[in-house]
Design a protein that fits this description.
Elements lengths: L1 E10 L2 E7 L4 E5 L6 H13 L18 E10 L2 E10 L5 E4 L2 E2 L12 E4 L5 H4 L2 H12 L4 H27 L4 H41 L5 E6 L7 H15 L10 E6 L2 E2 H4 L2 H23 L4 E4 L8 H11 L7 E5 L4 H9 L3 E7 L2 E5 L9
Parallel strand pairs: 3-13, 3-14, 8-12, 12-13
Antiparallel strand pairs: 1-2, 1-4, 4-5, 5-6, 6-7, 9-10, 10-11, 14-15
Bound molecules: adenosine-5'-diphosphate (ADP) and magnesium ion.
Magnesium ion (MG) binds next to helix 1.
Length: 376
Amino acid sequence: MYLKKLSVLNFKNYAETELEFSNHINCITGNNGQGKTNVLDAIYYLSFCKSFFNPNDSQNILHEAPFFLIQGSYHLQEKDEEIYCGLKRNQKKLFKRNKKEYSRLADHIGLFPLVMISPADSELITEGSESRRRFIDSVIVQFDREYLESLMSYNKVLSQRNALLKQFGNSRSFEMNALEIWDIKLIEYGEKIYETRKKFINSFVSIFQKYYTLISGGCEQVGIKYLSPLNEHSFEDLLKKTLPRDRNFEYTTQGSHKDDLEFTINEYPLKKYGSQGQQKSFLIALKLAQFDFMKNIKQITPILLLDDIYDKLDDLRVKQLMELVRSDNFGQLFITDTHLTRLPDLFKTAGVDFKVFMISNGNASETKMLQLPITI
Ligand SMILES: Nc1ncnc2c1ncn2[C@@H]1O[C@H](COP(=O)(O)OP(=O)(O)O)[C@@H](O)[C@H]1O
Ligand SMILES: [Mg+2]
């Protein structure tokens, strides 16, 4: 799959722009704050019906403008496809595929698979467990519908159980029978979630390690451990053990909603002992493993967006990464960099097809090879 053309009107700092892309590599260059990441975000919108960065749709409309429009022409499984996303201030978002409006945006997600690698991924290392659970859940739900249903049911039961614990607290009463009704369901869904996550992480880790080695040149040993109290107890025993605490705090203190992943480098925690470059390589390998999974499941090669790729990576790792992503396993790429010639130089010597775009203050234009300065 690839995006042939992107047109935007009043999107972030772009008043009006139309770009025709290479079906292989697209380098998006320009100084800080000019609008490179905004191009990636417009492409992200067309796959996920929302911004990667700003969940408030109307804040993505150009200041003072009444609406934005993003349109993309794709080539997908031998067919041309037109995707349209329009938003007027204070109105419902309009999303269309081949001129036909979606009634549910969820029906669109996954049809035009895309993986974004961004400096914002660092939250997977620095933030709490929720961002890591969101990451693995987002990969699993792509291929396991039953898992999605278990997750939704689990969350529903969890909030009922929490409401009951709160009610017990308020009324200074307790009724084990009433709580058990929710416990039985929480155990049923929680054990399913645990088994699925465990199985998934087992197969994901080896793919992830393969990518880490390819980027780093095999300097370090990296690992991902699934942290869950269910590694040691059954869910039933866990609830028994935590009951006094749950009653005290008036909510369910442990369970699938608290599971976490531990990232390690040479057996030590990555967050404390990994250098910035090692952490960045770790995050890229995680995302490339996600790419690999999506590609196998959907049988469509996702679009890959790589934002600010030189951020925290040395030249050698970027070179190794670029060699990897221009290989046959990958498809269309969009890569941003502040330097005009650094990425084109890498692709020029490799003799691959690429286009270069220059972004300046919300104006984007293609730079032909001949116009690029010669670097020695
Ligand atoms: N709704 C908006 N209207 C106008 N400008 C915006 C809007 N949202 C973001 N911007 C501008 O976009 C610019 C940042 O663009 P970005 O793509 O992140 O830059 P970079 O080239 O560094 O990746 C900033 O100047 C910011 O003010
Ligand atoms: Mg940027």
